[in-house]
Specification:
Length: about 160
C-alpha cells in the first residue's frame, strides 16, 4: 500500500507540473521517483516526523495567504457577486410572463458579462444554465429572486448613484 500511495502521489505531482506535455511528465515522474527513493533511506519514521510538521506549517502559510488575499479582494468579490445576481435577475425577465425582456435588457446582460472578472461567454453560459434550472424548479421567479438574490448593499447601485 505504501508503494501504491507513493506512486499515485508522484504521478499527481508530475502531472500537475508537466500539464499536458507527456514527455515532460515522464521526466518529472522519473525525477520525483528517484528523489523519493533517496528520501526512503532516511527511514520512514524519521521522514514522517519531519514531513508532517512541515506540511502543517505550510498549511498555516497557505491559510494566511488566502485570508490576506480574501481581505484585499473582498470588495471585488462582493462586486462580482452582485454583478452576477443582476445578470440572473435580468435573465429571469426572459422567462417571466409578467415582464418583458427587451433589447436593452439583452445589451445590459452583455455589458454586465463584459464587466465580470470571469470569461464573458463562459459566465453567460453558466448563468443561462442556472436560470433554466431555477425556471424548471420554481413557479414564482420574482419571489425566488427576492429570497435568494438580494441586491441590498449592492456596489452596482452605489456606482450608479455616484
Amino acid at each position: 500500500m505504501i508503494f501504491n500511495t507513493a506512486f499515485s502521489l508522484y504521478y499527481a505531482t508530475a502531472r500537475r507540473f508537466a500539464g499536458d506535455d507527456v514527455r515532460k511528465m515522464h521526466r518529472y515522474i522519473i525525477g520525483i521517483v528517484i528523489l523519493g527513493y533517496i528520501c526512503s533511506f532516511g527511514g520512514f519514521t524519521k521522514l514522517v516526523s519531519w514531513m508532517y510538521p512541515l506540511l502543517g506549517y505550510m498549511g498555516f502559510l497557505v491559510l494566511a495567504v488566502l485570508s490576506i488575499a480574501w481581505i484585499q479582494e473582498r470588495d471585488n468579490i462582493i462586486r462580482e457577486k452582485f454583478l452576477r445576481r443582476k445578470m440572473i435577475r435580468l435573465l429571469f425577465r426572459k422567462y417571466d410572463d409578467d415582464y418583458e425582456f427587451t433589447r436593452q435588457n439583452k445589451q445590459t446582460f452583455q455589458k454586465l458579462g463584459e464587466m465580470s472578472a470571469a470569461d464573458t461567454e463562459g459566465l453567460k453560459k453558466d448563468i443561462k444554465a442556472y436560470v433554466e434550472d431555477v425556471v424548471e424548479n420554481h413557479d414564482d421567479l420574482q419571489a425566488y429572486a427576492k429570497k435568494n438574490l438580494s441586491m441590498e448593499c449592492s456596489p452596482l447601485k452605489k456606482e450608479k448613484k455616484e
